[in-house]
Amino acid sequence: LLSSLKNGYNPNLSLNEKYFESNTLTSCQLPDVGGTITSFSAGWKWNAFIFAPTVSSLVVPIDGITESEQQEMIDKTGAVLASDIPTSYYHRCWTIIGILTVNGAVESAGIRLASP
Questions:
Q1: Residue 37 pairs with which residues in a beta bridge?
Q2: How many CB atoms lie under 10 A from the CB of residue 98?
Q3: Under a CB-based contact definition with an 8 Å cutoff, are residues 5 and 58 in contact?
Q4: Helix or strand run (H / E) with residue 36
Q5: d(C-alpha 26, C-alpha 83), whole Å
Q6: What dihedral do alpha carbons 36, 41, 44, 49 form, nearest 10°?
Q7: Residues 75-105: tens digit of each pLDDT
Q8: What percent of the chain has pLDDT over 90?
Q9: What parts of the chain have a pLDDT lower than 50?
């Protein structure tokens, strides 16, 4: 997933285009099944309950890019999440969880909860 996001990220796209090429996610291997999903719609960018958790994975270090490049991806993705908060409950919840993840609040809460 991280490799696909890295390859599909385009900082020259606009906020409205969500900074990812439409063909970012084209196929994926199904774990422990041996099959492959070969048709992945570009609609993942426009569906908040898919987009938000997918781009939240950007907080995990990505091989082959610098920390500053990855931070730019996180910053731009965070701006997309914050500017396009859906009105429906389900989609809004995933968007808010995505925002809390990319801005570091989830990590901070985990550290706080783990302390004595």
A1: 28
A2: 26
A3: yes
A4: strand 36-37
A5: 26
A6: -70
A7: 999 999 999 899 999 999 999 999 999 999 9
A8: 68
A9: none
- How many angstroms separate the first and last alpha carbons of the chain? 35
Whether the predicted model's global pTM rises above the 0.90 cut: no
Residue found under tokens 């099959």: 35
Helix (H) or strand (E) holding 95: helix 89-102
| Phi, psi at 97, each rounded to 5° | -60, -40
CA geometry: angle at 55 spanning 104 and 48, to 5°? 105
Rounded to whole angstroms, the Cα distance separating 79 from 19 reads: 10
8 close to 24: Cβ distance less than 8 angstroms: yes
- Residue 9 backbone dihedrals phi, psi, to 5 degrees: -70, 135
With 0-12 CB in 10 A as exposed, 13-18 as middle and 19+ as buried, what is 34?
exposed
Structure tokens at 38: 């070969």
